[in-house]
Amino acid sequence: MNDILQGLARAAKLVVTLDADLVEITALSLQVSLGAAAIGSAIGLPLGAWLAINRFPARRTVIALLNALMGLPPVVVGLIVYVLFSRSGPLGVFGLLFTPTAMVIAQVIIITPIIASIAHQAIRELWADYHDLLISLKANRRQRIGTLLWDGRRALMTASLAGFGRGIGEVGAIMIVGGNIDHATRVLTTAIALETGKGQFDMALALGFVLIGLAIAVNLALHFLSRTERGSRW
Amino acid sequence: MKFKTILAAAFSAVIAVAAQAEEMKISVTTSFANSGLAEVLLPEIEKDTGITVQLLVVGTGQALKLGAQGDVDAVLVHSRPAEEAWLAAGNGTHRREIMYNDFIFVGPSDDPAGAAEAEQATDALKAIEAAEAPFVSRGDDSGTHKMEKRLWTAAGITPEGDWYRAVGQGMGAALNTASGMNAYIMSDRASWLKFANKGDLKLVFEGDPILFNQYAYMPVNPEKHPHVKNDLAQKLEAWLVSDRARELINGYTLNGETLFTFNAKAE
Amino acid sequence: MVSGMIVLEGVELRRGGRVIVGPISLSLGGAGITMMMGPNGAGKTTLLRALHGLERVSAGQIRWAGNGQALRERQAFVFQTPILMRRSVLDSIAYPLRLQGVTRGEARDRAEACAGQVGLRVNLKKDAGDLSGGEKQKLALARALILEPVLLFLDEPCANLDGRSTREIEEILTRIRAGGTRIVMSTHDIGQARRLADDVVFLHDGKLVEQAPSAAFFDAPQSKQAHAYLQGDIVI
Question: Does B13 contact chain A (CB < 8 Å)?
């Protein structure tokens, strides 16, 4: 209990004094996970919507595959990305290993299936509701997708947030592909792992509280901006 | 908000590529990193040579593998047989000895196995095995782990049984585990002095010359990996064997104790 | 009344391999209100949906003869349970116009006028989901009318509404019929059928049993099923 209280106190102190190291690794954490969430959403949201609307022979298989990919162990993704981008690997020429870019790539792979799957679920329900109406009004395919994405934007935002949440708390993959290099690829989660490994529990807890605070703050900010909880049931 | 972030990330990635000219990566062992010496040396290196050194802190096995793959420009490890095998395979240009520290045994304060009474390191191990006292091993093919295995062999023991626990982690994490289990463990002195969660553990054995731990610096072979920054690697090596480095390394203390001894020879 | 505007020839609809409606052959004229009647499961909803193009015909044809092109192209459908979009009332009504490429400002203005025409007196900025049953159906009607359809389908539009809302909707339907809109609808409410129908199509068990002008149907139903139905018996 003492450790926890000390951790809280230390977290408060770091935040209030805007500790330079803390600011640096927090900024990188946000950069990597928000970047990955943005890219993952750009891919996953339309993909989920598209899957919800279109019928084609392999559809069930693709959906099952998507749901299965949600269970991809992040550390395995990290290992595969590492092997691919190593200088001795097929994509080594890009020199991306141990850079934030590699971390974003690994996280995009991990969170896109989650975003796509939640988006698909939400849009499928909405499509079931809107189906007869949109057909009756002769909306073309592009209009249908546009309407579903717009009217379903709250559920889609939940999908994006879920992806972000998975990314900001992830440590296995980005440890492997980022290398936890001080001032280069160190983020909150990998710093926590490092401090724990050094036996510096109060520092690790402090970083942990900052991470929790960050995740909550991002969530609140997005909900406030979109006025999700005001007004009606949707 | 998100779009600007991506833009910023992309922008800084481009800038980073441009700035890479004076950056190099070396893989080092957790024992070295945990000592805190890196925090002293790196800023001085940047000041004196202009090189920004990026450290990848991993176990010896992975450090050498990174070098073999060309993912780093040089390695700093402490396991001579592994280093020589690595060089023989054509992965590096040469090895240069920089400094040494030593290994110690750490254990519960009441020392149930009586390791403190041993004369030699091998005797301490024999005592621990005889008492079947819990012993935590790095188990990760690191320099420390290889040293530990050599000692067991020298003592004529194959350690196995419930009392012998291989954790597969770095030095700090392994010390955490030993502290939690109140077990014996072999550690480098530097990591032990810097470790913040000692619990009931204390130093029980030290001083046997067999526990001598030599660090060597090895640039990655540019013939095998043309992209490595061999020029920077050589520049860094020159600094590491310089008088300035000697001053900093010998001067680095923790709780009044010197951790490393500089022993690089001029060429 | 010009006959033969909408002609069904041997139309069948299947579900799961079974024929649920048909074969039906009938002919509908080009004006007034046609009322589809019949017990539950008779196939009224299915037939309406097929006419509008929401169901695929498994056999037979639907032909739009003569000046039927306008009828075919400019249709709208009001569902028994209104399909609501997750938007404000105003934007819901404006939606069909937006699909046609009308600008948002103009679409909203026309939507506001349309809301007035169906007597929807609520804060138009409210979420559509916050309306009462009657108000929701009026919204659906306004949305259907905003494109000025030539042919309007309604599937038991007042089935879930109270008396006042029902009356208001019937008034609107009477008004637009007078304006020349063709209406094909179904109902359970025999009183409503008497009030609104110009002609009746009576279905039972997926088949056409009787078709007649309204007065003839209600005063002297020819089939025993229609007779029983109008008397209030359960028709098996």
Answer: yes
Same domain, C161 and C143: no
**Whole-angstrom Cα distance, residue A194 to residue A214?**
19
Specify the CATH number for the domain of residue C185.
3.40.50.300
Contact C140, C79 (CB under 8 A): yes
Helix (H, G, I), strand (E, B) or coil at B109: coil
Give chain B's domains with CATH numbers. Answer: 24-100+213-262 (3.40.190.10), 102-211 (3.40.190.10)
Residues C154 and C69 in one domain: yes
Q: Are residues C177 and C156 in the same domain?
A: yes
Question: Are C140 and C177 found together in one domain?
Answer: no
C20 inside domain? yes
Residue that is last in its domain, among C101, C122, C148: C148
Tokens representing residue C195 in the block: 């009030």
Distance of CA B21 to the CA centre of its chain: 27
- Residue B161 to residue B158: CA distance in whole angstroms: 10
Neighbours of chain A (3+ CB pairs under 8 A): B, C
Residue A56: the pLDDT is 87
Taking the C-alpha atoms of residue A188 and residue A211, their distance in angstroms, rounded to an integer, is 7
C3 & C42 share domain:
yes
In this complex, is the C-beta atom of A171 within 8 Å of any C-beta atom belonging to chain B? no
Domain count within chain C: 2
Domains and CATH numbers, chain A: 2-226 (1.10.3720.10)
Q: Range of C94's domain?
A: 84-148
pLDDT, tens digit, 9 for 90 and up, residues B161-204: 889 998 888 888 899 889 988 999 999 888 888 887 888 999 99
Residue B1: predicted pLDDT: 47
Question: Best residue in B1, B4, B5 to probe A by mutation, most A CBs within 10 Å?
Answer: B5
- The answer on C156 and C58 residing in a single domain is yes
Sequence-separated (6 or more) residues with CB below 8 Å from residue C19: C12, C13, C58, C206
Inspect the structure and tell me whether chains B and A have 3 or more CB pairs less than 8 Å apart.
yes
Write down the residue that tokens 């004006």 correspond to. Answer: C31
Do C93 and C55 share a structural domain? no
Mark C168-192 as b/e (b = at least 16 C-beta within 10 Å).
Answer: bbbebbeebbeeebbbbbbbeeeeb
Average pLDDT, chain A: 89
Chain A / chain B CB contacts < 8 angstroms: 81
Residue B215 CA to residue B102 CA, distance in Å, equals: 10
Predicted pLDDT at A232: 47
Chains interfacing with C (3 or more CB pairs < 8 Å): A
Residue C79 located in a structural domain: no
- Look up the ipTM and state it: 0.90
Q: Each residue of C44-102: pLDDT tens digit? A: 999 999 999 999 999 999 988 766 677 788 899 999 999 999 999 999 999 999 999 99
Evaluate whether residue C35 is within a structural domain. Answer: yes
* CA C222 to each of CA A48, A61, C11, C201, C209: distance values in angstroms, whole numbers, following the listed order: 55, 55, 23, 12, 9
Confidence bin at B14 (pLDDT 50/70/90): low
Element (H, E) at C200: strand C199-204
Give how far C42 is from chain A: nearest CA, Å: 21
What are the pLDDT digits (tens) for B16-41? 554 455 899 999 988 788 788 999 99
Tokens 């040089």 correspond to B74
The model's confidence at residue B7, banded by pLDDT at 50, 70 and 90, is low
Confidence of residue A229 (pLDDT cuts 50, 70, 90): low
Its pTM stands at 0.78
